[in-house]
């Protein structure tokens, strides 16, 4: 069966969440948003492309930083309203210089930074 991005269930804003996960380690790297065109561009180019809500523009991950995300596999959830994007990540995924955007844990009701920026 041929995949059609239009078969996804986008929200009222035309977007759906896309979770980026390291294809080798399973580490969750980040969450961003995609529209139908971003999904299609990602599948066509193999470079993960998101929709920037703040800039209202396409955002090819790593285009300016060099911290590219190379598509390994894209998965749909059962409701077709979220994506899991398995990637090969070059460098940190987070704009803070950390490997993952999920670098703060809540432990005993306190925020604890569990990951430092990469050198």
From TrEMBL:
It comes from Oceaniovalibus guishaninsula JLT2003. Mg(2+) binds at residues 77, 79, 81. It is found in: Cytoplasm. It comes from the Bacteria. Zn(2+) binds at residues 78, 94, 101. SUPFAM superfamilies: HisI-like. GO terms for cellular component: cytoplasm. Binds 1 Mg(2+) ion per subunit. The lineage of its organism: Bacteria, Pseudomonadati, Pseudomonadota, Alphaproteobacteria, Rhodobacterales. Pathway: Amino-acid biosynthesis; L-histidine biosynthesis; L-histidine from 5-phospho-alpha-D-ribose 1-diphosphate: step 2/9; Amino-acid biosynthesis; L-histidine biosynthesis; L-histidine from 5-phospho-alpha-D-ribose 1-diphosphate: step 3/9. GO terms for molecular function: magnesium ion binding; phosphoribosyl-AMP cyclohydrolase activity; phosphoribosyl-ATP diphosphatase activity; zinc ion binding. Its EC number is 3.5.4.19. It catalyses: 1-(5-phospho-beta-D-ribosyl)-ATP + H2O = 1-(5-phospho-beta-D-ribosyl)-5'-AMP + diphosphate + H(+); 1-(5-phospho-beta-D-ribosyl)-5'-AMP + H2O = 1-(5-phospho-beta-D-ribosyl)-5-[(5-phospho-beta-D-ribosylamino)methylideneamino]imidazole-4-carboxamide. Keywords: Amino-acid biosynthesis, Cytoplasm, Histidine biosynthesis, Hydrolase, Magnesium, Metal-binding, Zinc. One of its GO terms (biological process) is L-histidine biosynthetic process. This is Phosphoribosyl-AMP cyclohydrolase. Residues 30-103 form the Phosphoribosyl-AMP cyclohydrolase domain. Its main location: cytoplasm.
């Amino acid at each position: 069966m041929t995949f059609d991005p239009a078969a996804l269930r986008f929200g009222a804003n035309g977007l759906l969440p896309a979770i980026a996960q390291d294809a080798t380690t399973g580490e969750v790297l980040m969450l961003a948003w995609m529209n139908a065109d971003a999904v299609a561009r990602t599948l066509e180019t193999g470079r993960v492309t998101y929709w920037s809500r703040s800039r209202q523009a396409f955002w090819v991950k790593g285009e300016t930083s060099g911290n590219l995300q190379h598509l390994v596999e894209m998965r749909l959830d059962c409701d077709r309203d979220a994506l899991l994007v398995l990637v090969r990540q070059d460098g940190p995924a987070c704009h803070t210089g950390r490997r993952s955007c999920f670098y703060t844990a809540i432990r005993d009701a306190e925020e604890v930074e569990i990951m430092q920026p990469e050198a």
